[in-house]
Amino acid sequence: MTTIDLNADLGEGFGRWTLTDDEALLSVVTSANVACGFHAGDPSTMRRVCELAAERGVRIGAQVSYRDLAGFGRRAMDVPAGELADEVAYQIGALEVFARAAGSRVAYVKPHGALYNRTVHDEDQAVAVVAGVRIAGGGLPVLGLPGSLLLAAAAKAGLPPVEEAFADRAYTARSTLVPRTEPGAVIHDGDAVVARALTMARDRSVTAITGEPLAVHAKSLCLHGDTPGAAALAQRVRRELTAAGVELEPFA
After folding, report:
1. Quick one: how far is CA 121 from the chain centroid?
2. Which of 3, 34, 154, 238 could form a disulfide with 142 if both were Cys (CB 3.0 to 4.6 A apart)?
3. Mind giving me the DSSP string for 182-197?
């Protein structure tokens, strides 16, 4: 039977401002990428998401970011490698406190936004993220884009690299994500997202925005929690995957 993990970005609010429907999504996903306070999230939100995830058997992942609350972590930044490693370790450590208090633990690490995209091709930043993971979590798995320098750096450092795919993002012909600044980068049509999730999980393939067929090598499938109707769409994706004989289980 085909198996795959289903992950989503959660805890992406701050103070009185909320964005993701954490409770609904935690009834659907098998892994939760929890914002650690640098692009979104605050201590109370982190605690609450960890408690809900632990109750429902959902794996807790630290979604680390550049320090960019105003830009939601999606702005390009130049951070010295040593500083970035420390900031990654800091974020993981903060989430670990709440995960352990909930009776769970941080099970993996995933960069967010601009940091995620930067570590696809920037070896210096990729190595810095991995160094931060080693400082904070020893041998934690690292979730990232297949073929990225981040996953290569993780493997070289002895951390389990975990490939993921995006059902709601468009791909270039080089198997990278289409930048959000370009038309069609985010797929809003629910039917299209469901269809892509099925082909990614069952057929291990997807079509690039320019029409080329691409091979998909992924252990985890990501749905963004900050898009309108994300919880209902995630429920539909899970239902259709299950109906197609795909078993959902966490990779970590």
Report:
1. 18
2. 154
3. STTSB---HHHHHHHH
